[in-house]
Write a structure and sequence with these properties.
alpha/beta, 8-stranded mixed beta sheet, two-stranded antiparallel ribbon, 11 helices, binds iron/sulfur cluster, binds magnesium ion
Length: 323
């Protein structure tokens, strides 16, 4: 892991004009990521933030670090390549629910099988905000947001279940308007040794008029004259996500799935599951290539000072000669 130093949130901010809609939950997620990276203490030049396509895809423009705004649904394979090439970097992938659970669903599932040491944050708003609010894979069956001509005809994917079933070793959910709590979750995700997934409930005030800040906050229902928030924190209701021995991994995962099934009047946020006991993909690579971490691909010299290639492919190609 990259060395740590004292940093400020401002170190991770940019001057790029931000064109997210006023009141969008994306602002809270961006702030939480910046706060988490500042607290982590790893300087921007040792961090890579990789995004897909969608409103969330603009994150790398607003966050000072090495970054790439990639293709629709592809932040995970791109981020995987970055991490494998340079395992000394902290890598954070960012995308939307449509990006990650629709076109990117295959990558999402296979990410869990590898347990690469990186974090993936999804802005989960139930719609394709960038393209005018079509139903995304996390929108519930039968609901009708204001940009749909008819109620949603498809059932929804449960990101918590899918991440658990796919093998993610850290699974959490945050809320875009509880920035400090979300910052803590993202910091835990980045510090986790292995693949960490954070689903973030992100109100889209422009296109999702159902799952709004007021709805999550329970303003439409009250007890003793006070709103009854739908969101609750797992850690305040006795949920223990940490796997301490290999034998308890399956039981902890089933408990996490039970919590992940909750929606409606009680919506949990916090860490559902954390298993730090499994080897990472980098560990497995190092078993096969002992010098992998000491001499990763990104640090190998491939050209001299004049730009002439120093890598000799001849011997490698000779190995493939069919006789
Ligand atoms: Fe945010 Fe929705 Fe506007 Fe996109 S369309 S910037 S998700 S409010
Ligand atoms: Mg979306």
């Amino acid at each position: 892991m990259a060395s740590e130093q004292v940093l400020k949130v401002a170190d991770f901010q940019t001057e790029v004009h931000n064109d997210w809609c006023p009141g969008c939950g994306d602002f809270g997620i961006l702030k939480a990521v910046q706060m988490a990276l500042a607290e982590l203490g790893v300087p921007p030049h040792n961090i890579a933030v990789i995004s897909g396509i969608g409103c969330s895809g603009k994150t790398p423009h607003y966050l000072n670090a090495y970054a790439a705004h990639t293709l629709h649904g592809r932040p995970l394979p791109y981020a995987s390549g970055v991490k494998i090439a340079n395992p000394g970097l902290e890598v954070v992938a960012v995308g939307g629910d449509g990006d990650g659970m629709g076109i990117g669903a295959g990558h999402f599932v296979n990410m869990g099988r590898r347990n690469l040491d990186l974090a993936y944050v999804i802005h989960d708003n139930g719609v394709y905000g960038l393209t005018k609010g079509q139903a995304s894979p996390t929108l519930k069956l039968g609901v009708k947001t204001k940009s749909l001509p008819k109620p949603n005809i498809n059932d929804s994917v449960n990101p918590i279940w899918l991440a658990l079933a796919s093998g993610a070793t850290f699974v959490a959910r945050g809320y875009a308007f509880d920035i400090r709590h979300l910052k803590d979750l993202i910091l835990k995700a980045v510090r986790h040794r292995g693949y960490a997934f954070v689903d973030v409930l992100q109100p889209c005030p422009t296109y999702n008029n159902l799952n709004t800040k007021d709805w999550f906050g329970g303003l439409d229902r009250a007890a003793a004259g006070k709103p009854l928030p739908r969101i609750y924190k797992l850690e305040e209701r006795g949920h223990d996500p940490l796997v301490r021995t290999p034998e308890e991994a399956d039981g902890k995962k089933l408990e996490a799935m039970k919590r992940g099934a909750e929606w409606g009047d009680a919506i949990p946020i916090g860490v559902f599951y954390q298993n730090p006991l499994l080897p990472t993909f980098e560990d497995r690579l190092e078993e096969r290539i002992p010098a992998y971490r000491a001499e990763p691909p990104a640090q190998q010299v491939i050209a001299d000072a004049q730009g002439r290639p120093t890598v000799r492919l001849g011997p490698l190609l000779d190995e493939f000669v069919v006789t």
